[in-house]
Amino acid sequence: MSDSLTSHLAQLEQQRVEALLTVDTAVFDALHDPAYQLCNPTGTVWDKAEYRRRLTTGDLAYSRLETTSEIDVLTSETLAVLRYRCVIALRVDGTDIPAHECWHIDTYIRADDGQWRCRYSQATGILPAAAG
Which SUPFAM superfamilies does this one have (predicted)? Predict the structure, then answer.
């Protein structure tokens, strides 16, 4: 894995995150595979169309989506896995969800046209450590 590919994939992920915050549908469409699926911290799975619909209608609105760690990247010629921590605050179906920390794992595939697109995303909430 080259440092340039690792850097490129981390930059794509930052662009994808920014597109979610700003609801940039052109970037959203370009960086998400047609078969994209998100598994959010509640365990709900949304396909690309549902995720896009929720963003564009305001049923889902991120007020904060901030990467708080380095983006670790593992890659082969056609598959990459990115993992990092972030802080998220959002509104879902009219309910505000306050800022909380999550782990994100995103799987990218290199399409036939040579472009990398996100295929799967999973966000896992990080619970506060229990007092011992």
Answer: NTF2-like
The three-class DSSP label of residue 33 is strand
Domains of the chain by start residue, with CATH: 3-125 (3.10.450.50)
- C-alpha 24/C-alpha 22 separation (Å) is 5
DSSP states of 36-94: EEEE-TTS-EEEHHHHHHHHHHTSEEEEEEEE-S--EEEE-SSEEEEEEEEEEEEEETT
Nearest to residue 32, comparing CAs of 60, 55, 5?
55
Cβ-Cβ contacts under 8 Å for 9 (sequence gap 6 or more): 71, 73, 75, 80, 82, 108, 116
Model confidence, pTM:
0.91
| CA 67 from centroid of its chain's CA atoms | 10
Q: What is the pLDDT of residues 49-96, one digit of tens each?
A: 999 999 999 999 999 999 999 999 999 999 999 999 999 999 999 999
List C-alpha distances in Å: 5 to 9, 69, 80, 117: 6, 19, 10, 13
